[in-house]
Amino acid sequence: MINKNCTKLLSLTLLCSITTANAETYWSDNSLSYLKNLQDFEVLTNDDINVFTFEHVSGHNWGDVFFFVDRINGKADNNNPKHKETYSEFSPRLSLSYLTGNDVSFGIIKDVFIAGTYEYSSGTSGDFGFGFDNYLYGIGASWNLFDKGFFNTNLYYANNEKIDNDQQLTVSWGYPMEFGKHHIMFDGYIDWSTSADDHEADFHFNPQLKLDVGNYFGNPKKLEVGIEYSFWRNKFGIAGLDDESTVSFLIKAHL
Question: Which pTM value belongs to this model?
């Protein structure tokens, strides 16, 4: 019998591969970024966390794809041993407009999608390290809320490896702003997961505010610097253990 998790992963891959015939890429972006916390991470109470990220996002006639890999390194301190983790997500969405051959937009909704996400963590760290493979599947939408930028929502059923299954709402946005030569991007996401028998509901608000430094040198949309704020209520679904509120410095290079 084929392993159920393998079947789910194949289903996610199918979202990207089912439309290879006549597939068209509208836009694509790859980037590398470095994140350095300016405050303690609450669970680890560690003031020296470094995160390196590779990120890919692209839009196609059949839908869109978002993928990233985080490498998280925390130095040992008086409170904790060193922390090392690789965390990644692969999130393809298949457009129902493309799949049906009919425009399914209505009102402020531009398109509706079959959505999936695969979450992976290597998690090797002292008392708090744990690895997992989670599979999320559901429905998504892109919204026409701004005259520029984007606003997306996904509603998932989460098949979790280490905790009871739950539901998750993901909201992501990006809004570019220009003040003369100063180009600023305000983007980020919100994840809200429901509670289950073995964990509490958690809420993660993670915006970034970035300045396009490359624009000052005639090379726009290549190098950004800014800050990221992470507010995470009931991190890891454990009530009372951790409510993360951390500001980090960010530098991002688009390849």
Answer: 0.89
